[in-house]
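Q&A log
Question type: sequence-to-structure
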Amino acid sequence: MHTPMKLFFSLLVLIVEVIPASVYGQKSYFKNGPVIEDSLTYLANKEKEKAKFEVFAKPVVITDRLEIIRQNQDSIVYSYHREIKVGKGAEETPEAARDIQPEDWEGRAFPLPELPSLQGQIVSMEKLKGKPTLINFWFTSCAPCIAEMPVLNNLRKKYGESVNFVALAADSEEKVRNFLAKRTFNFVHVVNEKFITEELHVKAFPKNVFLDKNGNVYQVEDGIPYVVDGQHKPKMGDGKEFEFILDRLLAGEGGKQ
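Response status: OK
Response body:
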């Protein structure tokens, strides 16, 4: 049984890991049936439920499948479906969300709900379908993310409207707008998207996800590959590897029914 002190520290860990609203500019709420919980209530109830099962067996893995059902500038509401696995083998279950890595999504539908972009349009999986998509995960203080932006801009210029180019940042709208006022990054920008980052378990940045014309993940890459110059020093590459992937998708590879 958890003592009050153990419960307190467990909640501190969970608050850091699960959608810290004070950092990302929005209050988060969680809906299960008719009940809507704020972040602290949601985390406390989740920890209590885990403790209840731990009385009988360990380990206990609780996985909540989150889906955005409402979002505005000040708040975001998730619905969740809870899965509880108890006993031997629970931690090794590949369906546990903590085990899913970005590469594991290859061949699966990309989990993108309807989200507003900074350009004033709605970005959704249905709207992206019909042509390949490059989705870039980044944040405003990520030096490798910033370093590859000129190459990504060149890709956007080369392929134009034949490919969707979307950038997803967990930073607040204010942070991203301030950044874009000083630097050029010519993608369609979606902010406050920490839900998608967590769903895909993106922990290393930048991360580039290529989707086929049907919205399925075709390939997952890190940043633009570096090359070695004549003085044997690494420098940013020209993005030819990414061009090769996009050319294959435009030629019809992937996206097969």
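Response note: The radius of gyration is 20 Å.
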